Amino acid sequence: MSVQQFAIIDSTLREGEQFVNAFFTTEQKIRIATLLDAFGVEYIELTTPLASPQSEKDCRAIARLGLRAKTLTHTRCALEDVRVAVETGVQGVDVVIGTSSYLRKFSHGKSIEAIVEMAGEVFEYLKKFNVEMRFSTEDSLRSNVEDLYRVYEAVDKMGVHRVGVADTVGIGTPRQIYDLVANLRARVKADIEFHGHNDTGCAIANAFAALEAGATHVDTSVLGIGERNGITPLGGLIARLYAVSPALVAKYNLPLLRHLDQAIASLVGVDIPFNNYITGFAAFTHKAGIHAKAVLNNPSTYEILKPEDFGLTRYIHIASRLTGWNAVRYRAEQLGLKLSDAHLKAITEEVKRLSDHQPLTLDEVDRLLYTMHEALLEEEKTPEPSGGA
Ligand code: HCA
Ligand code: CU
């Protein structure tokens, strides 16, 4: 099944707050929410108001901003929690409860019957308010699948708007996620949300597999921040979808991605990883001569993402022994230097000779180009020696 309509639930202000380095002031939360809204995510999920008095105030403050994105908060499957949640003015409540034997045994200690009963109470109450209701099973991938279907079918009958599959420990593979979501799609009327952790590097692929299987909502966070090493990163999901078809992500303001990544990186005190999707510093760099030549002729030879669509530019790295003379010519043109092919080839050989022994900087290559250019100008100026006697 191809990916159809979908919405992003960005959880930087909920799951992201669970990242070990994260501490956001109210002003910072508002700035993040406003940027996410300008980017165009459809939903913004906020930390439960039960976490602390300030969390409750922040939740209310962001719900009051009147953003285009819908605001959601996150609670346990308990009447006392959802009562507080609806009071904050959010447009939806994301209810979650663990269904795996690990969580049932070591966390809340409830049976599947008790979970269905609690969900009944919670949604009976929430129905009186004009809020979206979501029910998710924590640790879905390590839950008994029959238990899962039983709970999902029960809450579907209760009228929830979305059911959520959560790969809480990042154990799922794309195939497993695809099968689980496809089976669920056949069983419930509600929309389906996927929330995936990245412990084994599958969070983006799993989110994409969920969408292919009929999920309608995907959870992300900026840079993927969250518990442990986090969840599906917003930028990575965008890259994945864009590579299938740029039309899938045309609804988002893509150049804002780098502002979001930079803002979060600096707020939580990390660098954007060099190999980050789209915004890592090496994402649009080309080095080997063969790559550089082809990219200069047509960027699509080695780029599936167009940097300009994200407000970024590509960089051709020429100061290395892997370089080629086409790349060196491109640099000379950038510097406005006119050199013949023979001279460019000679400089390329010099770059290779020098960088065979030690790393070279772009400055050093530029100096070789300028020196050659000046020498040629000098030659032009010097009169030909007269032909002799
Ligand atoms: C948590 C766990 C959670 C919930 C996901 C969800 C997870 O921190 O409460 O609500 O769908 O990964 O299971 O983030
Ligand atoms: Cu999570």
Write the layout of secondary structure elements.
Blueprint: E1 7-10, H1 26-39, E2 43-46, H2 53-63, E3 70-76, H3 79-87, E4 92-98, H4 101-106, H5 112-126, E5 132-138, H6 145-157, E6 162-167, H7 174-185, E7 191-196, H8 203-212, E8 217-220, H9 234-244, H10 256-267, E9 285-286, H11 289-297, E10 315-316, H12 325-334, H13 341-355, H14 362-381
Parallel strand pairs: 1-2, 1-8, 2-3, 3-4, 4-5, 5-6, 6-7, 7-8, 9-10
Helix pairs in contact: 1-2, 1-10, 3-5, 5-6, 7-8, 8-9, 11-12, 12-13, 13-14
The structure holds 3-hydroxy-3-carboxy-adipic acid and copper (II) ion.
Task: Describe what you observe in this structure.
The protein is α/β, with parallel strands linked by helices. The chain has two domains: 2-268, Alpha-Beta Barrel (TIM Barrel); 285-381, no CATH class. 43% of the residues lie in helices and 13% in strands. It contains 14 helices and ten strands. The protein has helices spanning 26-39, 53-63, 79-87, 101-106, 112-126, 145-157, 174-185, 203-212, 234-244, 256-267, 289-297, 325-334, 341-355, 362-381; strands spanning 7-10, 43-46, 70-76, 92-98, 132-138, 162-167, 191-196, 217-220, 285-286, 315-316. The strands form two sheets. The protein has an eight-stranded parallel β-barrel, surrounded by seven helices. The chain has a two-stranded parallel sheet with strand order 9-10. The longest helix is centred in the C-terminal third of the chain and has 20 residues, at 362-381. The protein is elongated. The chain binds 3-hydroxy-3-carboxy-adipic acid and copper (II) ion (CU). Residues 15, 168, 195, 197, 226-227, 231 line the site of copper (II) ion.
